Amino acid sequence: MPDQSQCDQIARSISGASNVYNVDTPGSMSYTVGTVVSFREPQAHLDQSMVELAQAIHGPLVPKVSQHGPVDGADPPLAIHTMPYLPGISCLDALDCQVDMDDVTEAKHVCFVRHLARYFARCWFKPQHVAAEVRAENLNRIQSRFALLKASPSILSTPVVSELAPRLPALFAQEYPQVLTHGDLSRTNILVDEDTFEITGIIDWSLAAILPFGMELDTLYLTTGYMNLDDGDYDDGRRAKIRDMAEQAARIGAILRYAFQRNADGSPSETLVDDGAVTLRYLQAWLAT
């Protein structure tokens, strides 16, 4: 594994900058100058086709990725990627978890929610074709994780798992939209304008996949603290059914993200988190509301 000084030298060589800086957030393996230089292990590889699909759907919010080959002699292997620097700060640094806000702060949060809603709308209006066998594989993978949860009731209450597990096949049915899913739509991977909270970038698409719409909606819940799916009138039962399925998908996505330990690439593993994990307590509280 190359040390810090070797990574610094590689970043200077690729970017042409005289000085480079290791960023705190997002991504401790990235360097930010006019160009972001990222060193990635094979598990965290950026799939060029997924990045291009994300660009086609979300436009300039997704940075173009260039590949520069492996780091010579690195063990484990490291691939070098570069992308243009996007303006803004991470949601982790921008969003407050306060209940009482002044008018200016509230307006900024409303702006963020609107932009996040547009992200989900773009995904909804660009459904992707997924072969039946691939949908079946995705379904089986998630069902196996729910079986682990059911066998460990101390992690999540059995009623929650029992309620959601039967809903899984409907989410992978042919009539339910499968959409581009970021895979780690966390507060560190969403960049916002510091003054307005307008979303300026969505980065790190290494876990991107095509999954049922709604599997990332927990981001809307967990970054805003509240989302009401009960308001409004519906023209027919189908719209109400889709909303209900999307809400269930959001709960399933949150469980997969926070009830399991992470692999080296950041994806959920087959190992449950410890009973006392902070993320688990947060998840339990949210699912109980």
What does it look like?
- There is one protein chain.
- It is built from ten helices and eleven strands.
- It has 289 residues and is α+β, with helices and mostly antiparallel strands.
- Helix content is 42%, strand content 16%.
- The termini are far apart.
- Helix 9 (237-258) packs antiparallel against helix 10 (278-288).
- Pfam families: APH (PF01636).
- Residues 15-244 form the Aminoglycoside phosphotransferase domain.
- It comes from Canariomyces notabilis.
- This is Aminoglycoside phosphotransferase domain-containing protein.
Notable characteristics:
single chain, 289 residues, alpha+beta, Aminoglycoside 3'-phosphotransferase, Chain: A, domain 2, 2 domains, 4-stranded antiparallel β-sheet, 3-stranded antiparallel β-sheet, 10 helices, 42% helix, globular, Aminoglycoside_PTrfase, Aminoglycoside phosphotransferase domain-containing protein
List the helices and strands and how they pair.
Blueprint: H1 4-15, E1 30-32, E2 35-40, H2 48-58, E3 66-70, E4 79-84, E5 89-90, H3 91-94, H4 103-124, H5 132-151, H6 158-164, H7 168-171, E6 178-181, E7 190-192, E8 199-202, E9 209-212, H8 218-224, H9 237-258, E10 260-262, E11 268-272, H10 278-288
Antiparallel strand pairs: 1-2, 2-4, 3-4, 5-7, 6-9, 7-8, 10-11
Helix pairs in contact: 9-10
